[in-house]
C-alpha cells in the first residue's frame, strides 16, 4: 500500500543466513504475520518475535501513554539510542505512526482498546485495536494545505505496508503498520 516500501508487501527482504526460498504468501492476498527471524548471536537459530501489549481501554491520555510505551520498547529492542541519522529517523517514524493510529482510534472509533508492538528482528508491527466499524483510508486526493485528514496518508507514506484486520465475531478492527529496522 505504501509507495516507499523497499520490498513487496509482506516481504522483509533477505534474511541474513537464511535460505533463498521464496517468502511465504497468503492465499487470500492478506499480509502475512511477522516472520520468525534468525539470530546471528545464536548461530542462526530461529528467534521468536517479541511482543509487547498495552491495554488502552478506559485510560486517559492514551496518545502520550502509547508513545512512552513504544519508546521503551524501542530502547529494549536496540532501535534507541541510535548513532545514525537513519536510525533516529526510523525511531521517530515508529513513534509518529503510533501517534497517528491511536489518535485515529480516539477520533473515529469509540476508543482504542490496545496497542500491540511486535518485533521480529527485521521489522516492527504496530497494531491498534478498537471497537469502531469504519475502515481507515488515506484521503485522496491528498490536500496538504487543509487541516485534518493526514493521519492515514502519513501511515501509508512511512510504513512498508499497512492494513486493517476485522475482529472475528466482535465489533471492531485492528489497524496495523509495518516498518523496517534501519540497516546499519
From TrEMBL:
Region (Disordered): 1-47
Residues of the signal peptide: none
Key words, A-Z: ATP-binding, Kinase, Nucleotide-binding, Serine/threonine-protein kinase, Transferase
Biased composition (Pro residues): 1-11
GO terms, molecular function: ATP binding
Residues annotated as domain Histidine kinase/HSP90-like ATPase: 89-175
Gene3D superfamilies: Histidine kinase-like ATPase, C-terminal domain
Family annotation (InterPro entries): Anti-sigma-factor_SerPK, HATPase_C_sf, HATPase_dom
Annotated Pfam families: HATPase_c_2
Protein name per its UniProtKB record: ATP-binding protein
